[in-house]
Every structure is written in structure tokens, then in C-alpha cells.
Amino acid sequence: MISKDTICAVATPPGIGGIAIVRLSGPDAFAIADRCFRGKAALATVPTHTIHYGKFYDGPQLIDTVTASVFRAPHSYTGEDVVEFGCHGGPLVTQQILNALITAGARHAEPGEFTKRAFLNGKLDLTQVEAVADLIHAQTIPGAQAAARQLVGGLTRRLQQLRQQLIDIAGLLELELDFAEEDIELIDRETVIQQLNAVHHICSELADSVVAAEILRGGYVVGIVGYPNAGKSSLLNALLGKQRAIVSDLPGTTRDYIEEVLFLDGMSIKLVDTAGLRDKPADRIELEGIELAHSILQQSNLVLVLNDASLGFDHSNSLLAALQQRYPQSRYLLVHNKLDLIPDPPSAFPSNGSVQTLGISARTGQGLGQLKRTLATIAKEDSQRVTDGLINERQATLLAAAARSLAAAIDALRAGLSNEFVAVEVREALNAIGKITGEVYTDEVLQAIFSRFCIGK
Ligand SMILES: Nc1nc2c(ncn2[C@@H]2O[C@H](COP(=O)(O)OP(=O)(O)OP(=O)(O)O)[C@@H](O)[C@H]2O)c(=O)[nH]1
Ligand SMILES: [Mg+2]
To answer: What is the pTM of this model?
Structure first.
């Protein structure tokens, strides 16, 4: 794609810093830059991938001393001619540089427009574009690392392999159709079923990894629930090491929910303290809080059921069982609180059914270290399935669609249907995978993806 416009934007965050970078990209990048930049040589004449020191002017007015990094098409981020000016990091400096570039013939870039040009010029595919956004917005170290792998093409390569396998299979199926009259068999149906099964398996696995990817992207959500007065808010405060939530001996203290992020071992753990669950709330507000607590439970990766052990180790068992029945997908952890009130508490607790169990005292801090380690381990376990990249909802939906088409293709083969039917399904799957990388795309898809970007990226 050849853009007519040359675009510019500040690529560094707003505010004051040591340096800032102003990016300029497009067919007239060098001409426009040379209208403002005075160095030893005109930027239009210097080799690609070189840096030049000089003065930056707006007409006769000196703005700053700058460095100009020169990248010639196609060897740049956007695939176009690019100049990046490194200037002093004040908002008035960058604003004047932008104004000068616009006077000299450039226009303001839209959010994500540099990356959009990179995509349209074939420098990045859509999964890599999405990785750029994920890398910038990453909340966890493993999330950032997975996005980096996706950026260098981890997911692209994986999807290309799948595509190639499917193209080969579809080709054979269609070729055999041409010989249908002669009754020549080119393919062994069992082998094709096995190959399709293998691709189907990978597509479903990748689609399922969206849950793990969301954990790496947004953090691991731990919903703290229990009966009123179990000490949920005390636990939140103890884990955070600060008085964040109101604690009192009145049951029904917490009515809203309170969300805070804790960083444990490179993982971001989102703790949500909720209103105590009881059947007969004191008033309408507490009832609303309980309903909110249920909506938090639906979004939680882990449900931490906090039990007031001074009322018995089995005091919350019926609550736990009821929650497990209502939210069977969730993972649970049972934590006995207020061990300080119990003479000779056991040092370890057997699991409750399949539910891992720990003991703590939010008041004395006993057992909190072990609880933190357990939370980090569980969050890591649940996010471990992420390998080549961070699958997002868009990609997961397309992968699931591909898996459905492949299942239909396998069924058609098993039922002995003509190759025609099988090939149609395989082509459908190919189409879905093509949309993931952007081999097939629509303007709406691009719009949705690039709206997540900031200006200058
Ligand atoms: N002895 C002792 N008391 C505790 C402990 N944790 C909490 N408490 C007390 O238990 C009472 C209730 O604590 P909260 O943290 O407000 O309990 P909650 O579960 O948030 O209660 P609601 O918000 O009403 O659902 C307070 O008086 C706390 O001081 C503990 O480990 N040991
Ligand atoms: Mg509370």
C-alpha cells in the first residue's frame, strides 16, 4: 500500500522527560524533515539507519537541538520513509516540533496509524499488531514476555503451519474430485482424518488458552467471599499491608466490593473483597452488595472462601458446597481465618474434598506468607498454557470457528460424503485462520483493532 500522506506524532508519553521522540512517516518524510532540520547533510541524502545531530527550526525560529534517526523504505517500522527526531522532553518542545512538521507538509497521525501502515505494508501481520498493543499494556511479566514472543512471529508461524497443512489437504481433496469419473483414489481417508484431527486439536487448544491469556493480560482475579464477619476485609488489608477496607465487628460491614492489585512473583493478582454472603441481609443495600458479590464470583479465576475458624472448621462447608454447585467452573481455595483464637491450631489442613485448604490469622499475620505463595503458584498454574502468544477474544472466536469447520469436515469424511463437502469445510477453516493473521480482513476489523492504540504508535 502506498500512502499519500506523511504523518507525524509524538511517540513518547506526554509530560516531562529527559528526551521525547517525534515520529514522521510517509513518502515526503525526508523532504518535510529537511525543511526543519539543519545538520551537516540533508537527511534526503544520508544512508538508512543513521543518526544525525542538528538544529530544528520552525521557519526562522530555533526550536531545539535534536537527533534525527533515518530509516529508508522498506526498512522501517511502517515500511515507509521514516525520520524520528529525538528532542528534549518538554511538552512545549514536542508541540512546537509537531507544529513545524505540519506547517512543512505533514499531518497529525491517528491512533495506531503507524502500526496500521506497518500492517498494510506487510511489515506485521494482525497477530503481531495485537502483540504490540498487548506488550504496551502488559500488566504481568509473563504476559509481556508472551506478547514479545507473539510480536516476533511465534503465533504467526504456528498459524502458517496450520494453514499450510489445510491448504495441502484441501488441494488433494479437490484434485481427487477431478478424477472422480475415473474412480481414482489419491488419498487415504483415514490419514486425512488423522491430519484434520491434529489441526482441530491445536485450534481448540489455542482457543481455550484465551482464559490463561486473559490472566496474563489483566491479572488473576481472586474473589474473597464468606459469611459476614469472617474477616474478608481484614484479610484484604493484611495482604496489601495497608488499611484499605473498613473492618468492624458488625456483620454486613462491606456492602460494595473493593478491588486492589497485588504483585506476587511477577504475577498481578487482583483481590476483590466482597460483601459477606448471608440469606437474610439486614437491608436493601446489603442485598445489593450480595448480588454484586455474585457477579464478582462469575468473573473470578479463583474463589477464596474465607471461614471464621473460631466458629468451627466446618462452619462454611455448606456455603462452599453451594458455591461450587452454582459456579462449577471456578477454582476454589478454603482459608480458615482467626487461628489466633484457637488453642493449638493444626499446622496444616487436609484438603476439603478437592479444595486446597490453608489456615491463617488476618490479625497476627500467621500463615499469610504461605497464602501468598499459594496464590502465586495457582495463578501461574492457571496461566501456564500460554506459549506462542496471548490469544485474545477475536482470535479465540476465529480459532473456535475453524475447529467447528474441521469437526464438520471430519464428520463428512467419516460419513463417506463426497470430497466436495469435506473441502468446503476445510476451506472455511482456512478462511477463519486467514482472518486471524489478517490475510483476509475488513475495515471494521482494522478499526476495532487500531482503536486500542495510542497516538504515536
Ligand atoms: N481474632 C481475630 N479477629 C479477626 C481476624 N480477622 C478479622 N477479625 C475480626 O473480625 C471482625 C470482622 O472482620 P472484617 O474484616 O470486617 O470481616 P468481613 O468478613 O469483611 O465482614 P463483612 O464485611 O461484614 O462481611 C472484626 O472485628 C475483625 O477485627 C483474625 O484473624 N483474628
Ligand atoms: Mg468486609
So the answer is: 0.75
